[in-house]
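Quick question, first post here. What does this chain look like in 3D?
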Amino acid sequence: MERRKYCVYNQTRECFLSLGVTAADTPLARLKGLIGKLSVRSDEGIWVVPSNGVHTLGVLVPLDLIYLDEKHRVIHLVEHFPTFRIAPLRADSDSVLELAAHTIYSSQTQVGDQLLICVAEEMEQWLSRTAPQKTGTG
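> Answer (accepted):
Ran it through. Tokens below.
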């Protein structure tokens, strides 16, 4: 069964972080994570929920880690986290995004930024509600 994909949008910076994040929301999915992946593309990653911290034991590529509170506000960032390590634990963290290295830098994501995480259909509806309406006269 194909796991549901989520879009991750930084509302503060008005940019997408990923269009294909998979939720690791079961004990087995959280345990497996990205173990054995030879690469992580910019349009993929995992959202470990619930989580106060993650590890890269068995992960073969460095990752960017974004710790979120229960409202999906960024509370901690780790850029280019190396393989075969245990990441910092954050008691105030509700979930952690594991994304391709350089995602934080390229999106300029910072502590305090508000993220929107939802399926593509919901993202499309949200963007259509928040986009400026065009007023054409011709």
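The beta strands are 5-10, 15-24, 45-48, 63-68, 74-81, 95-100, 115-118.
The CA atoms of residues 8 and 122 lie 11 Å apart.
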